[in-house]
Design brief:
Elements: H1 3-13, H2 22-33, H3 46-62, H4 76-85, H5 104-130
Helix pairs in contact: 1-5
Length: 131
């Protein structure tokens, strides 16, 4: 199973899409292109649609719009640990670091992105192991 296919399975598990099948994705792509859009392009190639859809999955997960699912609570200790492990990412041009509370939202987003990737990779591995 490819990473992209595992993303579709995870999106399906989260009820972000009605089916993880390639046919269902093609149908979503065709529906997108047949709809008038107020913002963004009115037509996307299939590859561009796959990329945009993948970004939407990650964004929905990261922003917590996923309903009926409980995910790990990110604690202040988690934020501080990430900050300490990645302090170089949070350094001003002058060399002085940002305070953890200044970058809390960014750290939470990064931790959720990591959690998303871990879930998708687990689905991919699970499928590989079952074959």
């Amino acid at each position: 199973m490819t990473y992209e296919e595992a993303e579709l399975v995870f999106a399906y598990q989260l009820a972000l899409i009605s089916s993880p099948s390639k046919g269902a994705r093609t149908k979503r792509w065709e529906e997108y292109n047949s709809t008038i859009h107020e913002y963004g392009p009115s037509f996307l190639s299939e590859e561009a649609f796959r990329e945009a859809e993948s970004t939407d999955f990650i964004t929905s997960f990261v922003l917590g719009k996923v309903k009926n699912h409980t995910f790990r609570t990110i604690t202040d200790d988690d934020v501080l640990a990430y900050y300490r492990e990645n302090a170089d990412l949070f350094t001003r041009a002058e060399g002085d670091p940002f305070a953890p509370e200044e970058v809390r939202d960014i750290i939470i987003k990064r931790l959720r992105e990591r959690e998303y990737r871990e879930n998708v990779e687990a689905i991919s591995l699970q499928h590989r192991d079952s074959q």
